[in-house]
Amino acid sequence: MGFLAAIGRAFLIFLEATGRLAQFSATALSHLVRPPIYGRLIVRQMVDIGYYSLPVVGLTALFTGMVLALQSFSGFARFQAEGAVATVVVLSLVRELGPVLAGLMVAGRIGASMAAEIGTMRVTEQIDALTTLSTNPFKYLVVPRLIAGLTMLPLLVIVADIIGVFGGFLVAVYRLSFNPAAYLSQTALYLTANDVMAGLVKAAVFGFLIALMGCYHGYQSRGGAQGVGAATTNAVVSASILILVCDYLITGIFFS
Questions:
Q1: What is the pTM of this model?
Q2: Sign of the C-alpha dihedral, residues 84, 89, 90, 95?
Q3: Using an 8 Å Cβ cutoff, are 121 and 223 in contact?
């Protein structure tokens, strides 16, 4: 019976955590559409999420496109289908690798930062001070981050797609001796609006999840510096897992 009791306790803990997250999400979404809106805080979070994440996202996309071109050429050469390299590179980046890799990179950088910042404010009672000053913590801390994550990650993914395709183009032309005009023509031939839309929808969902997990774990942190460290770790891990799960679900909706 001890084994079954342990399973039951774990399941109840999971349900409790899920309920807390659902309640937090519902509260955040309700404040998302109600005034006041702190425009200056939103712009600051947009700069932090978008502009300062460009280097890591751009480098990741560039080398992903280059590696993808090399690997695709190596595989297709066995079947004399080297002409499909451009199509594979652009579809893989736009549909899948661009949104997922950008989401994971931003989760590691921004999700941890949000959890650490809000967690520090929680353990030092700054959030309680905001409430005392008649400032809603959700409006001041959570909503700007959710809006910034929802709007900036699709822009980052667009930049990542362009840089990744450019990386594949460099390798194909200067390493694999492809004709530049033929490669670009093949790149645009099979790319459709549905492919781009799927990637942007994924990016928007991933950005929202990253901001939500960072804010939630930071807001719920307890126990001083150790609690802030645990909140930071949990924010990155939970955001990464949710990105992969939602990636499968959205892919099933668009391409089933």
A1: 0.89
A2: positive
A3: no
Furthest C-alpha separation in the chain:
70
Neighbours of 82 (CB within 10 A): 17
Rounded Cα distance, 157 and 250, in Å = 16
pLDDT tens digits, one per residue of 70-87:
888 888 777 777 777 888
Report how far residue 148's alpha carbon sits from residue 150's, in angstroms, rounded to the nearest whole number. 5
**N- to C-terminal Cα separation, the chain:** 43
Q: List, in order, residues 6 or more apart from 17 with CB less than 8 Å away.
A: none
**Two structure tokens written together for 228:** 């802030």
Question: Of 2, 20, 27, which is closest to residue 143 (Cα–Cα)?
Answer: 27
Position with higher pLDDT, 4 vs 45? 45
Q: 107: which DSSP letter?
A: I
